[in-house]
Design brief:
Chains A, B: GO terms for molecular function: xanthine phosphoribosyltransferase activity. The structure is a homodimer. By secondary structure, chain A is α/β, with parallel strands linked by helices. In chain A, 31% of the residues lie in helices and 33% in strands. A 6-stranded mixed sheet of chain A has the order 5-4-8-9-10-11, with helices on both faces. A two-stranded antiparallel sheet of chain A has the order 1-2. In chain A, strands 6-7 form a two-stranded antiparallel ribbon.
């Protein structure tokens, strides 16, 4: 994904050696046509699976997850991060820390939206420590559904999330891997 | 939008005379192809405007706003609801109450994403009291951009948000209007 690397080089802001802001093209504004290209990439990389649902966690992964689900012709589920007025007994809930927000949140998926026959593709914009991903994977397991893989737009490869998922035997497809953000400079790895 | 009314009749859960849950087709899971139909509706209803950006507020409006932006061929901006690690001086912020969440949140848009030449279409899944919409409209005004209209999937017409926007001279296009939720029953208005 050369275009994605170019956008990161030209538009992303490196805040520290841990944090990169990609507001103009990923986390706050997106070009829908470009998101469709990313969705086609994910659909192609997981095409041997019989995916029945795409799942993401609100909110900045929703655009690319929607694009992927549109290409695959399957529903998109977005896990919620807060309690709503619905009774908890209808929800599968996992508590996870959030690296970027510096707080703990509950992520939740309604029981009626995942079943034992579901083959689920997890899509997200960024993976860092993978805490939210781990929580979501527990929810998928608790529902009895099958996780067929994880498609990530930008993997911060210097943090442990991607490696953890791969070591767990999950097929992880990252469109771009960032090896380091040292000295305000983005270094990619292949 | 007969299909939308059917989905509401068959799948929505009326929690009280104020609250309806549309998790299976709007707020937690979506059918991407159906969202594209809604996006085409909005694109068609605002086609006389030269829209340069679609804007929504995270997170459950993102799918239909993305679909609309994809049809229109313009960027999608999603306003954020929480402080991130980026400095506030780069952000236009408005504090708004949230009816469904029972709390106050800050909504924010990066200054670099809205300019005086922008013709902005606001898209959201639901309008109730319109507090978030009012906050977002203030942000659009502060950026010097022009709001060309508001496209809403489900308007809770027994609450004041839609009427407020129309009285402010804004073109509001709601695909479905709910007149009342009394006695657990959804009544539509035309």
């Amino acid at each position: 994904m050369e275009k994605l690397q170019t956008l990161i080089k030209e538009e992303a802001i490196v805040i520290s050696d841990q944090v990169i802001v990609m507001d103009t093209f990923l986390n706050h504004q997106v070009d829908p046509a470009f998101m469709m290209e990313l969705g086609e990439q994910f659909a192609s990389r997981f095409k041997e699976h019989h995916i029945t649902k795409v799942i993401t966690i609100e909110s900045s992964g929703i655009t690319v997850a929607f694009a992927t689900a549109l290409v695959l012709g399957v529903p998109l589920v977005f896990a919620r991060r807060k309690k709503t007025l619905v009774g908890d007994t209808e929800m599968l809930v996992e508590r996870v820390p959030s690296f970027t927000k510096g707080m703990v949140t509950d992520i939740m998926v309604s029981k009626q939206l995942l079943s034992e026959t579901d083959q689920v593709l997890f899509i997200d914009d960024i993976i860092a420590n993978g805490d939210a991903a781990r929580g979501l994977i527990k929810i998928i397991e608790r529902a009895g559904a099958t996780l067929v893989g994880a498609g990530i737009v930008v993997e911060k490869a210097f943090q442990s999330g991607g490696a953890y998922l791969r070591e767990s035997g999950i097929q992880v497809e990252s469109l771009v891997k960032i090896a380091s953000l040292t000295d305000g400079e983005v270094q990619f790895s292949s």
